Amino acid sequence: MVPSLFIAHGSPMVAIEQSEYGTFLDRLGRTLPRPKAVVLFSAHWESAVQQVSEVSTYSTIYDFGGFPDALYRVTYSAKGAPDLSLRVQDLLRRRGIEARGERQRGLDHGAWTLLKRLYPHADIPVVEMSVNAHLSPAEQFRIGETLAPLRAEDVLVIGSGVTVHNFQLLGANASPAVQAAVREFEEWLVKTLEAWDVPALFDYERQAPHAHLAVPPAGREHIAPLFYAMGAADSPDAVTVLHQSWMWNVMANSVYQFL
Predict the structure, then answer these.
(1) Residue 225, by phi and psi: left (phi above 0), alpha (psi -120 to 50) or beta?
(2) Beta-carbon count within 10 A of 237 CB
(3) What is the pLDDT along the chain (259 residues), one digit of tens a residue?
(4) Paired strand residues for 53
(5) pTM for the full model?
(6) Bridge partners, residue 131, by sequence
(7) How far is CA 222 from CA 25, 67, 175, 195, 227, in A?
(8) How is residue 188 annotated by DSSP?
(9) Beta strand 239-247 pairing with 37-46
(10) Alpha-carbon distance 102 to 88, whole Å?
């Protein structure tokens, strides 16, 4: 059975730059069990009703600005998996979760930035999923939980977001106090994940230190993929921190495996 993963998608530059994190993702793609397909929840696709991509071949969406020209020349023409998309939609509807197929949208950078490093030949079919930051963590978990059976079919479920994601901190990234605060939040997250204290994780806004600094109310879409990935794990035998580093000192590049 393949794991489910939460993977920080970081800056779009992760796709092309030589960095510690990029090198880690290259290695991760080579060491993970090779999946038949990937189902990926992206923080950069938000919708009120669960959207499930049904495209046959993806275009590449450049949903960002101000980056070097080389980044806009990157393409990731992954194949879709329409049959798997229909199965995902069926699993969701059987649990009473409204779901809609989407047949035009390409891959946003929350998806292709990671996949370009993990599977550079674009030879793994992909089904991209939207997220809804207005749902509670428990509701997000339930959607992920619905897809847990896919892992036994060698389908890799990925939640792509960022656990500490607050652009307001960038001007203060040299502040030792700010750096210490966001690290304390991430340390609490690790400890609570490893204990699989799901009620505390659902209540992170009240229980985690500096939660509103690490995850501002307007940025909940970036932590949401964590709960979808947790749900797909259901009750994991092991939670493993595969990687931790920091972008600009205040944005977390964290990778968590649920197996």
Answers:
(1) alpha
(2) 9
(3) 899 999 999 999 999 999 999 999 999 999 999 999 999 999 999 999 999 999 999 999 999 999 999 999 999 999 999 999 999 999 999 999 999 999 999 999 999 999 999 999 999 999 999 999 999 999 999 999 999 999 999 999 999 999 999 988 887 666 889 999 999 999 999 999 999 999 999 999 999 999 999 999 999 999 999 999 999 998 899 999 999 999 989 999 999 999 9
(4) 102
(5) 0.97
(6) 46
(7) 19, 21, 23, 22, 10
(8) H
(9) unpaired
(10) 13
**Single-letter code of the amino acid located at 14:** V
Structure tokens at 232: 């797909």
247 closest CA partner among 182, 200, 159, 198: 182
Fold that domain 4-258 belongs to in CATH: Protocatechuate 4,5-dioxygenase; Chain B (3.40.830)
Q: From edge to edge, which strands make up the β-sheet containing 50-53? A: 99-102, 50-53, 126-131, 37-46, 155-161, 4-8, 251-258, 239-247
The C-alpha atoms of residue 139 and residue 258 are separated, in whole angstroms, by: 19
